[in-house]
Amino acid sequence: MEGLRSRYAPDIALSAGSAVAEEEIKRLTALLSQAAQSQERMRREHAEAMAARDRDLRRAEARHAGQAKRMLAEVDRARQVAKALEAELAKEQQRRVRGEEAAAKRLEAELEKVKSCAGSRPRDRGGAARAACGSHSGCRLLLNESLASRRKSSTNVRPSQSKMPRGAK
């Protein structure tokens, strides 16, 4: 019997070791499965975090681009307003220069008339010269007309009230 035991003892030991090995295999398989699940969960969480970060980055870039576009549009509007105001100022200056030139020409013409009136009267020191010119009433009338027309022409040239384009502050 002893021979039988020794002959079958390894099998019994093997079967007892086999049960322990099976338990160890099951335990290690369960740990491997848990590790795989944990790794998959961590991979999904990381992918979701990366997607959220990319989404936030794109939104921030879109906000930044929109803000840059708005600022550029505002600068363009301000530039257009400045050009319009500059053009209006140039027109106003031209109108004033033309008005001043016209007034200067009228004044020059009136001065010539006054000089011709003064040159046509006799040059004596008595009252005869004043009487010939009508106590300068003709010259005074001429000067008054000239001044009145000059005042009228200077009031006709008014600074224009330019309208600010939309969006100008």
Short descriptors:
169 residues, mainly alpha, rod-shaped
Q: Provide the gyration radius in Å.
A: 55 Å
Class by SSE composition: mainly alpha
What is the tally of helical segments? 3
**Major β-sheet, in short?**
none
Q: What overall form do the CA principal axes indicate? A: rod-shaped
Helical content class: over 70%
Beta-strand residue fraction: under 5%
What ranges have pLDDT less than 50 throughout 5 or more consecutive residues? 126-133
Listing every helix as H and every strand as E from the N terminus to the C terminus, the arrangement reads HHH
Question: Mean of residue pLDDT?
Answer: 79
What is the domain total for the residues?
A: 1
Ends distance: 114 Å
Question: What does this molecule look like?
Answer:
It contains three helices and no strands. With 169 residues, the protein is mainly alpha-helical. It has one domain (2-156). Helix 1 runs antiparallel to helix 3. The model is unreliable at 126-133 (pLDDT under 50).
